[in-house]
Design brief:
elongated; 14 helices; 2 domains; two-stranded antiparallel ribbon; 6-stranded mixed β-barrel; single chain; 16 strands; alpha+beta
């Protein structure tokens, strides 16, 4: 009951000096709002990374032509072939599907517009393996690949880059190295995968690419879809075993290829996002400390203003503990009120940023709890000194105070 009365007295004190209380709470409000917003941005960034990882579908490993040593000298060259892809599909038990890829950066012309784009020659299963979906049209077939037909599937942003629309390009003709290609499909937006934006690529049948466009039968990359429930690490070992056998690499000799897991790129991004969020939240927390100092200053002023009141309370039987607790409760009430307003403000700002800027922002209940708890801790910490000063006042001297 005594504690409830103290809370009511604290609320009456806030109402009696409302403008001063608002100014006092301002640091806490800004601090809590900043923490909520910054943590929401960081959490949203991590959620966006998780969505991108999930968008990759099942684990897809990229086998690339790698640097290797020859006669003690670092060499690089095309070391992957169709035979390697066929061997992986046939002998790698942990691999569900394989997509051989050959790619070059070439000029693409449509009407009067042209753009330098990445042309990727692939087998027809490239969309299924990489979890790509069609926005319009269709994909090329095994028959298109076998016949080396000049057909193309575009990334989602290619029409915009060529200053036209998807509808205008679908069924139309683009020119790659002077060869006319009929556009048969456009993919849904996918975004960046690793260091490349797949929306800015053009896919054509692998045989068409190798023998009609690139003039080479080597591969730049092999995408291998790991079988369900198979650990990625086990699949990497299996792939390495098959390729070392195909390349006749003796024990102790370095690989002339590299196996990359695209998730590593996203893990780096997630780590960077976490560090950035922690940094921003730490900076925002400084406002809470500043707000706590402001509350301590105001509470010291309040003790001076209420010296006579303290003397009367002590004369009526209030103990040091009662006075100490009263002023600590008042400091905590100020901080908790400021924390509540800060939480509402921070949540509102996060929602506004998400709506206006299109950012992926997630307001975490944990962040709200921590910010609210921290504001209470600030009130307790910075309220102790003024409360002790009030509790140690001599009642006779306090009653004489004017």
């Amino acid at each position: 009951m005594l504690f409830l009365e103290m809370i009511l007295v604290a609320l009456q004190s806030v109402r009696a000096n409302l403008f001063r209380a608002i100014l006092t709470m301002l640091g806490i409000i800004i601090g809590v709002a900043s923490v909520i917003t910054m943590v929401a941005i960081g959490t949203g960034a991590r959620a966006a990374v998780d969505e991108q990882i999930e968008a990759l579908g099942a684990s897809v490993l990229n086998i690339r032509t790698g640097n290797f040593m020859r006669m003690g000298v670092a060499q690089s060259g095309a070391t992957l072939t169709i035979g390697d892809a066929e061997a992986l599909a046939r002998d790698a038990a942990t691999v569900e599907a394989v997509v051989p890829e050959a790619a070059q950066q070439l000029q693409v012309k449509f009407g009067a517009e042209n753009r330098n784009l990445r042309i990727v020659g692939v087998t027809p299963n490239f969309a299924a393996v990489n979890s790509y979906t069609l926005a319009a049209g269709s994909l090329f077939t095994l028959a298109d690949d076998s016949a080396k037909r000049p057909v193309a599937v575009l990334g989602n942003s290619v029409p915009a880059q060529l200053k036209t629309t998807r509808e205008a390009m679908l069924g139309g003709t683009i020119y790659i190295k002077g060869i006319a290609f009929r556009v048969i499909g456009v993919l849904e937006e996918k975004g960046a995968s690793g260091f490349r934006n797949v929306d800015e690529q053009v896919w054509i049948p692998l045989a068409t690419a190798q023998f009609r466009v690139f003039g080479s039968d080597t591969l730049d990359n092999i995408s291998a879809k790991v079988s369900p429930a198979v650990p990625v690490e086990r699949a990497m070992v299996d792939i390495e075993r098959v390729l070392r056998r195909e390349h006749n690499l003796l024990p102790g000799k370095d690989n002339d290829f590299s196996i990359g897991d695209p998730r590593q790129f996203f893990n780096v991004r997630e780590t960077a996002a976490n560090i950035f969020a922690i940094l921003l939240a730490s900076i925002a927390s400084i406002s809470l400390i500043v707000g706590g100092i402001g509350i301590m200053n105001i509470m010291l002023v309040t003790v001076t203003e209420r010296t006579r009141e303290i003397g009367i309370r002590k004369a009526l039987g209030a103990t040091r503990f009662n006075i100490l607790l009263q002023f600590i409760v008042e400091a905590m009430v100020l901080c908790l009120l400021g924390g509540t307003v800060g939480i509402l403000l921070g949540t509102g700002v996060a929602a506004l940023l998400s709506r206006v800027l299109g950012w992926s922002i997630v307001v975490s209940p944990t962040a709200i709890g921590v910010a609210f708890g921290f504001s209470a801790a600030v009130g307790l910490f910075f309220g102790i000194w003024p409360a002790r000063k009030a509790a140690r006042l001599d009642p006779i001297e306090a009653l004489r105070y004017e």
